[in-house]
Amino acid sequence: MLLDLYWRDSQGLKTSLTSFCLASKASEMTGRRCLAEMEAQRIVERFPDPFDKRRIYVRLTATGRDKMDACFQTLLSGYAQTCHDCARKCGDAPDGARQEVPFCIAIDGVRQFRR
Length: 115
Fold this sequence. Notes:
- It comes from Sphingobium chlorophenolicum.
- This is Regulatory protein MarR.
- InterPro entries: WH-like_DNA-bd_sf, WH_DNA-bd_sf.
- By secondary structure, this protein is an alpha+beta fold.
- The chain has a single domain, classed as Arc Repressor Mutant, subunit A (Orthogonal Bundle).
- Helix content is 49%, strand content 17%.
- It has four helices and five strands; from the N terminus they run H-E-H-H-E-E-H-E-E.
- The strands form two sheets. The protein has a three-stranded antiparallel beta sheet.
- It is elongated.
């Protein structure tokens, strides 16, 4: 749900309450309970559609965006550390052989990421 909000916000798109709940792939009641918890933590907020009072939109708050940014920064830092560890492990072994590691392999000094 949060990832969907984050992406849609970055694209300048609004997210209706219905779409927000559907993003969870859970029941509407579960989606609403999650929304209530996120609102209590002040990471999302609801606001009315100015043209259609029946529609409610959901958006990340500044705090929510900061928390998502911090989450991605942590993930990217972990990935960078993994790549750093990989670079150390992929170095030439004394016998000239290279060790294969889970995320990438080094071939002739060029890293090729596995899919």
